[in-house]
Amino acid sequence: MEKETDLVKENSCKTIIFNALLKKNPILAGGMVVAPVVITVDSFPRALTLAAAFSVITFFTLLISSFVPKSIVYTVRIIMYAFIGALVYVPASIMLEYFMPDEINEMGIFFPLLIINSFIISRSEAIFFLESKGKMLLDIIFCIIGYDAAVILYGLIREIIGSGTFCGEIIGIPAVFSVFSEPAGGFLLLGIMAALLRVILLTVKKVRQK
Q1: How do the domains of the chain map onto residue ranges?
Q2: Are strands 169-170 and 165-166 parallel, antiparallel or unpaired?
Q3: Which one, 24, 26, 71, 158, has least CB within 10 Å?
Q4: For the CA atoms of the chain, what is the radius of gyration?
Q5: Alpha helices in 32-108 (DSSP H)
Q6: Is 68 left (phi over 0), alpha (psi -120 to 50) or beta?
């Protein structure tokens, strides 16, 4: 009975949202889809571009993939996820390139690579498709929101401290650290953000236990 109660709590809507946004944040806690962030997101506008591309492709790919029968062999399912992602990519690329052509082109190869990102494969097999359709949809939406929020905050911080600008406009901060504009600095900043999130979660946990 106690185990069933714990399972219900773990699968509650409140817990799903908290895990998706913070505790199991796809990028800061899970380290998923990191390469496009570090390589392409060095400003606030580019962060918005990646967030938009990731959201559209990931949401519709996962939504359609949820109807793939689980009786199919694992290897074949993975291939099907990639195929579905490719189908979603076509209309998604047309739409996104219409609204933000220059930004999407600047993403280069990282834009089409979003159709086979680790988040789609690992989360879908490990968590999403084990939930009811309603909770799966809730989980997907808030995981995407959690990822986008982290990426946008990352892009904002990286542009300000790495270039001293906001959306390309100089804001006149007292010190600029150009190393954060480079990939190595990008990894460092992402690591700092992940560590800060962990500290926050541990602090919250200690406060709740008192």
Answers
A1: 34-209
A2: antiparallel
A3: 71
A4: 19
A5: 35-40, 44-65, 74-99, 101-107
A6: beta
Tell me which DSSP letter residue 21 carries: I
Tokens of 25: 């944040």
How do the pLDDT tens digits run along the chain, 210 residues long? 444 344 444 567 888 888 888 888 889 888 888 889 999 999 999 999 999 999 999 999 888 888 888 788 888 888 888 899 899 999 999 999 888 888 888 888 889 888 888 777 776 676 666 777 788 888 889 989 999 999 999 999 999 998 888 887 888 777 788 889 898 999 999 999 999 999 999 988 888 777
Q: Contact, 97 vs 112, CB < 8 A?
A: no
Distance CA 40, CA 38 (A): 6
